[in-house]
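Q: Here's a chain of 565 amino acids. Please give me its 3D structure as C-alpha cells.
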Amino acid sequence: MAGRIPQHFIDELIARADIVELIGSRVPLKKAGKEFKACCPFHGEKTPSFHVVPDKQFYHCFGCGVHGTAITFLMDHDHLSFVEAVEDLASRVGLEVPREEPAGARQPPPSEALFTLLDKTAELYRRELKNSDRAKDYFKARGLTGDTAAKFSLGYAPDAWDCVLQQFGTSEAERLKLLQVGLVIERERKAGVNPGYYDRFRDRVMFPIRDARGRTIGFGGRVLDKGEPKYLNSPETELFHKGRELYGLYEARQASRTLSRLLIVEGYMDVVRLHQAGITYAVATLGTATTPEHLSRVFRICQEVIFCFDGDRAGRAAAWRALENAISQVREGRQIRFLFLPDGHDPDSLVGAEGRDAFESRIGRAEALFDYLIRHLREQNDMTSRDGRGRFKEMAKSYLARVPEGAYQEQLLTAINQTAQIDTGLLATKPNPRVSGRQPAVSNPTSSGRRNLVRQAVQLLVHYPGIADKVRDLDALRALDRPGIPLIVQLVEELHDQPCDKTAVLLERWRGRPDVGHLEKLAAMELHIADQAGAAQELLGALERLLQEHETQRRYQATIDGSGA
C-alpha cells in the first residue's frame, strides 16, 4: 500500500514491541542484571559482547559497534527495508500499519513504475538468453551453470536497435520512461524532426544490477565478440548511482544473513564466478573507483573489507585509488585489506583454476591497509638515502593526517617512524610550541570541559528523554554560540511538543537525519545514573554550568580585548 507511515504509529510500535523477544527469537540471549547478553549475530565472536537493554528498547555490540532499535535489527539482520521491517514488527504486536494517503493519490509513485519497467526489461533479456545459443555458449565457455545464471538473472540483449522499444515503448510516454531509466538513447535532434530513440544495449550479455530489495535499478552489458566499449553500464538515473551501488550485494546478503566480510572485485563475471565457487561475499564496483559512500555503506553491513585486484599495472593503480578513499574510514573494529592476484589472472580465472579453498587461503593472507601503504611509499623512494627517507616521511604525513585520531593513527605513526628510522615525534600532526620556538597562547579558562558538558547533556536526553520537560529557559540556551547547543535545543523543543520516555522511540524519530549517528553512539555508551530523577538533576546542572561558563568566557574575552587596546 502506498502512503507515508505516520510517526505517531512508529512511536506506538516501538513502545509496544518487546526487543528482547524479537532478538531472542534469532539469537540465544542470557540475562545479565537488567540487560541481556549474547554472542553478536553480526560478527564472529566467542565471548558475548552483544547487549540488549529492555528499558531503552535498544541493543549494542561492544565488539563491532552495531546498535539500534527493533526496527534496525530487522533491517540489518533480516535484510528488510524500513517499511518491510515496520510491517513485520507491526504484525508481531497485532497492529495494522496505517498510511497517510495524499489526497487524490491512487497511482504508485513514478519511481515504482520505473522499477517495474526495469524488472520487466530484465525478464525480457532472460527470455532472449534462452533463445540465443550464441549467448548461452558464451556463459558456458566462462564456466557458468544454469543455476548461477538464474541466481543472477543473467540475460541477453539481441543485436537489434529496437528490441526494448518494441516491447515497452509503443507510446511517447512509454519511450520517455525508457529514456528516464537509461534503456534507450535519444537520437540527435534536428529542427522540425522528431528525434526518435534506439536501444542502448545491443548484442550484449546482460547483468541486472539490483538494490537491497532485489529490484532492478540498472544493467551492465558485455560485448560477445570484439567491440567497444567492452563493458557498458546504465547511465546515472534517479534510481541508479554508480558511486553508491555494488554489484552482487543483494545476492551476497541473500546468501548469508550475517555477513562478516565483503570481497570487493572489479568485474561482473568475477562476482558471478566467485559466488558459483562458494565465495558468496564477493561484490563489485560499477565501472568506478570505490568511493567513501561505498565504504560507508559496506561498514554498516560488516566490519571487514578485502579489496581484490589483478596483479598488473592497472590493478595496482586501482588498488591505490581504493586505499586513498578507504584510509579515512579506518576505525577501531574495522579491517581493510588488499589482495593482489598473480599476473595474468583475475578472480574469475583464478578461482576456476585453483578452486575455492586455495582462493580463500589467498584471502586469508591479504595485506593490511597500513602494511600496503608503507610498502607502496617505500617503493616510491630510495630508503637507503637520507633524502629518500625524508621524502618518504613527507609523503606519509599527508596520509597520516587523514586517519581519524586515536589508536590507529598512533599505530601508523609508529610504523612510519620505524620505517623512516627517525625519532618518534617528528611526524606529529600538531605543532609543539616548545619545538617551534613560539610561546604558548594564553589558555582559555573554560575551553576544556565545555564540549564534555554539551555531550553529557545530549547523552542524558538520549538515555532519559522524559527529563526534557525539566528544561524551561530555552532562550538562554539559544544565546550560546557553541557546537552542539542547537542539537540540545532541538531535542528539548521536540520532546516538549511530543514527549516520550524510551530511547528507541527518540532514535526512530531521528532516523534519516544527519545527527542520528551521533545520538545512536551516545545511546550505546554506558550512563551510570540510577534513575530519571538523578538524570534530570545532572542535566540541569550541566546546562547551568554551560551558562555560567558562557558568562565567564564573555568576561575573559572582554579582558583580553581590553588588554590589547
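Q: Can you summarize the key feature?
A: The mean pLDDT is 85.
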